[in-house]
Amino acid sequence: MVVIRGGRVVDPGHLDGIYDIYISEGRIVDIAAPSAGAASSPAVTEEIQAAGKIVTPGLIDMHVHLREPGYEYKETIATGCLAAACGGFTAVCPMPNTEPVNDRAEVCRFMISQAAASGVGVRVLPIGAISRDQEGKDLAEFAGLKEAGAVAVSDDGKPVSDDLLMRRAMEYAKGFGLPVISHCEVVSLAAGGAMNEGLASTRLGLAGIPNAAERIMVERDIALCELTGAALHIAHVSARESVRAIREAKKRGVPVTAETAPHFFMLTDEAVGEYDTAAKVNPPLRSEADREAVCEGLADGTIDAIASDHAPHSVMEKEVEFDLAANGISGLETSLALSLSLVRRNLISISRLVEAMSLAPARILGLPGGLAVGGPADITVIDPDMAWRVDAASFRSLGKNTPFDRWELQGKAVLTMVGGRVVYYGLAPGAGRCR
Amino acid sequence: MGGLSTKHILEMASLSCDDITLILDTAVNMKEISRRPVKKVPTLRGKTVVSFFYESSTRTRVSFDLAAKRLSADSVALTAGASSMTKGETLVDTVRNLEVMSPDIIVIRHSSAGAPHLLARHVSLPVINAGDGMHAHPSQALLDLMTVREKKGRIAGLRLAIIGDIARSRVARCNIAGFRKMGASVVVAAPPTMLPFGIDSLGAEVTHSADEAIDGADVIMMLRIQKERLAAHLFSSAREYARTFGLTVERVKRARPDALIMHPGPLNRGVEIAPEVADGPCSVILDQVENGVAVRMALFYLVLGGQRDGGD
Ligand SMILES: [Zn+2]
User: Fold this and answer.
1) Candidates B90, B165, B169, partner chain A, best to mutate (most A CBs within 10 A)
2) Residues A155-166, buried b or exposed e (16+ Cβ, 10 A)?
3) Does B113 touch chain A if contact means CB atoms closer than 8 Å?
4) Distance (Å, rounded) from C-alpha A181 to C-alpha A152?
5) How confident is the model over A370-399, as pLDDT tens digits?
6) Helix, strand, coil abundance in chain A, percent, nearest 5
7) Residue B181 Cα, gap to closest chain A Cα (Å)
8) Chain A residues 201-220 with CB within 8 Å of chain B
9) N or C, which terminus of chain A has less Cβ within 10 Å?
10) Which residues, 6+ apart, have CB-to-CB distance to A34 below 8 Å?
11) Nearest CA in chain A to B134
């Protein structure tokens, strides 16, 4: 039996206090008040000292790109899982824009088997495609995907432009209990755009993408969600108008959920600076008013979840002309620390953070969540005070593309446990792990 | 007596007023060379200028080439299609490969905004931007400043009207920055489809009426209308554009009597500019072309460490 001793256990709506968590055979067997000074029972084979740390249900990143199959030079499922473990994630959901596209059971099974073969131990829960080959024409085989282990469907990277196809996708997915994750972008409005349409794009002479390109699609999908009653999840919300539309829809009782990514609450389009492709992402970094709206949306629960939209690229795709550069930020290893900065700035509570990075993704995807006696021991231990400096070159991810390189951050996962097995151990020597 | 405060010539915003004045003064001397019977001085003998043209532009390429030759520099111009540029090699790779052959200056023209900035970060030699996407074209703004200063004797206090597709124009962006910096006021006129977000933040007044912009202008700068922009729904027809924004003889009358008419070329006669205006007495379009060579000679000289003449 393993015990995580004396940490502040935060499981929103359930626990917030100092507890010992006992783990055996991959499951949580007890969560108990600390046995102060009491000698360990002989059954305890390992103690992890977590005093001063925060112990949370395993973090889930519901939006990542692991690039395998097809683009293994950018990331493999193995390297992506290492990055996830190091970032404090016990489960990640890879998007289907691989080569081939994850639009059928075989690809889905391949991803899961690669994750198992990697031996890292992080759970990989693939997201299947909405349309075959993500071409936006015919529906992918949702039943097969679901049986193979897909937890949602999405054409992420590409919007589903055909309104009828999106309606049918939502109706069809509802029958299998699969949420539909929408990448909201009106292609004709965004076409050719390399960054947010704003003062920075005007100064830099780059074609801009207006907020309306996102907002119009968000509003369409909300309308279809109302029509079908299916579970709709809006990916990577960046624009204030989208936040407002989702807030109003939720008030009406529409079953819509949403996520944003750390770069949208940390940065604005000014981060592009002098054509820094590390800050090129889709949707683009927006204005300060948008950044603030995203923070508010997270604080009031309009935006349910934080996902990294981990999008690793090789230097080949980033060290080029700005408008030719690939979109994306390698986010798994900075997501938690950036999100913790919201807690430090009192914009959200630690409990809201755990909600956004663990419980909400679990709820949206229909996974077991939280810390329950009898449940799987998926646990993240966070040192909220650990100061560290981002060094992209030392990322476990093959993608070193980040606008946060060299940033001084505070707070880090120091232990990631999946099914009772430690998949990442970053506690200082002497801090525990005896025997 | 100093040289330039910057190593690269990427955009007007990074040049100080002193830099601009130094370039224009130097260009005046250079122009004199072009008017000699033997149009060549040994100033840059043994130096090599490499030009990359990833976007076709005969006139800018020839202008930079002539400028190099008149200073006795060796000049090599590579155009897309003529080299590895089209074979999947990245811009940075291409230039790094060339860098080891030890050129002294790199000139780049590219359809992507910021491409010269990318190079400047990766190479150790001076980079001169010969036009990048919709972003900047500093040698064009400098030759425009030179032309106006030559004809008017000053820049400060003048009123410049720029008319046309401001949103997609590097000439407009650079001239707004350059003329504002040197003390002129700038008004831009275009239909809203041709104005970028927050253009006033660059320091220009904005109007949707060509007449309004031209009222009292000392300088009228017309931008080329590309008919293929029709496909992007920027205007409804060339005919309507000519009627509402084209520079006609009638319209010119609203400007100050001694107003200068400028155009970066190539011209669409009868669309943005009437033939009688383009070829009329106020037109300085050919002076712009001539001054272009002088300005580029000055840039070559100065980025290689040339200084203002001691006697100046
Ligand atoms: Zn997306």
Assistant:
1) B90
2) bbbbbbeeeebb
3) yes
4) 7
5) 999 999 999 999 999 999 999 999 999 999
6) 35, 25, 45
7) 15
8) 201-208
9) C
10) A5, A6, A18, A19, A20
11) A205
The model's pLDDT over A240-275, given as tens digits with 9 standing for 90+, comes to 999 999 999 999 999 999 999 999 999 999 999 999
Does residue B243 contact residue B214 with C-beta atoms inside 8 Å?
A: no
Q: Which two tokens stand for residue A275?
A: 């054509």
Cα–Cα distance for residue pair A153/B39, rounded to 1 Å: 69
Which residue out of A189, A204, A287 would a mutagenesis test of the B interface target, given it has the greatest number of B Cβ atoms within 10 Å? A204
Distance from CA of B94 to the nearest CA of A (A): 12
Tell me, yes or no, if A408 comes closer than 8 A to chain B by beta carbon.
no
pLDDT band at A431 (very low <50, low <70, confident <90, very high): very low
Residues in chain B, overall count: 312
Q: Looking at residue B107, what is its pLDDT?
A: 96
Catalytic pick from A20, A103, A269, A309?
A309
Give the amino acid at A201. S
**Sign, Cα dihedral of B14, B18, B22, B24:** positive
Query: What is the number of CB-based contacts under 8 A between chain A and chain B?
Result: 65
**Beta-carbon separation of B110 and A321 below 8 A:** yes
Distance from CA of A205 to the nearest CA of B (A): 4
CA A153 to the chain's CA centroid = 15
Rounded to the nearest angstrom, the gap between the alpha carbon of residue A140 and the centroid of all alpha carbons in its chain is: 23
Catalytic residue check, A276: no
∠ CA A250-A255-A261, nearest 5°, is 75
> Strand runs (DSSP E) across B153-288, as ranges?
159-163, 185-189, 205-207, 219-222, 260-262
